[in-house]
């Protein structure tokens, strides 16, 4: 089997939902900079966040991210910590403050955001996919006209649904894009805030990318702890305290790789092609079930099932032995899931399909 092998290291085909596969050429650059960042003689993890070499890394990461997204100047790009789960409470703590906000419930992560928001104000669930086991995205919304913002999750990592269009909402939009950030062209200008944990499409865990309209950030409460206020991080360019310097370096290299791939348009086309190759095969036989409504299927997380849990267990065991790692569905949903983030290759999707075909031949 062809592996994304870096010189001496054997690498599995990694379907993990996150942290997830990164481009080998990025990992090789990271390795090379561990001992010395460029020719500085100081490794990337040993380098002061106030030093000129690190400032160059941070500025390049911001510049390339802005270029890839074609992001207007009124947005700030922040590299924060605490994961997307920290944004679940930072957002309502800043902007809700006793007011109401609309939330779209599309599964576990959206529900966790809702739970946190309830601590700060009146959560109005404008639509929920719960009655359909989150296998279809809500199409109709019942907005509260008191909502100071609308929060949605653009890709539902566990259930394998993805908004193909930004929902129209009467209130400023906030998006948890953790599992499909920069997987294709985005429309940042339709949002006031987009956030994502880096560990799927952008780099290692431990950095959260936040894209925020600077004017909206100013609406945030002023009597909040300094670290919680977005204006703090905007003013200090993500350097109010020590950021995740290593994580930002890896993201900087991933952004450069994305540019070499042809940018978000080209990346989006490749992701659609990868997902189609797998969905087409799953749809071709009654042996497999892809439960998500066709129009809502995620290009990032392909969820599928077999007739029995025993057969699913058998498949997972066999794939693990064959070097196809991480196909087991999320513990809360069961079934099977292939995560096909940006760095996952079409060639490896073909290898999975070949494996599944053979499994079907023996068990169908
Ligand atoms: C859509 C989505 N939102 C939020 C999270 C939580 O992210 P974190 O672990 O960075 O807090 C995840 C994690 O998988 C996710 O998939």
What this model shows, in words?
- The protein has 364 residues and is α/β, with parallel strands linked by helices.
- Helices cover 36% and strands 16% of the residues.
- The protein has ten helices and 13 strands.
- α2 packs across α7.
- It is globular.
- Bound molecules: pyridoxal-5'-phosphate.
What class would the helix/strand composition place it in? Answer: alpha/beta
The helix tally amounts to: 10
* Proportion of strand residues: 15-25%
Small ligands present: pyridoxal-5'-phosphate
Mean of residue pLDDT values = 96
Low-confidence stretches: 1-6
Shape type: globular
- Characterize the biggest β-sheet: 7 strands, mixed
State the order of secondary-structure elements, H for helix, E for strand: EHHEHEHEEEEEEEHHHHEHEEH
Secondary structure: number of strands: 13
Strand order of the largest sheet: 2-10-9-8-5-3-4
SSE layout and pairing:
Elements: E1 13-14, H1 24-35, H2 52-69, E2 75-80, H3 83-95, E3 100-105, H4 108-117, E4 122-128, E5 147-153, E6 155-156, E7 161-162, E8 173-176, E9 193-197, E10 208-213, H5 214-217, H6 230-235, H7 245-260, H8 263-283, E11 301-304, H9 309-321, E12 324-325, E13 336-339, H10 346-363
Parallel strand pairs: 1-12, 3-4, 3-5, 5-8, 8-9
Antiparallel strand pairs: 2-10, 6-7, 9-10, 11-13
Residues 18, 83-85, 109, 153, 157, 176, 178-179, 197 line the site of pyridoxal-5'-phosphate.
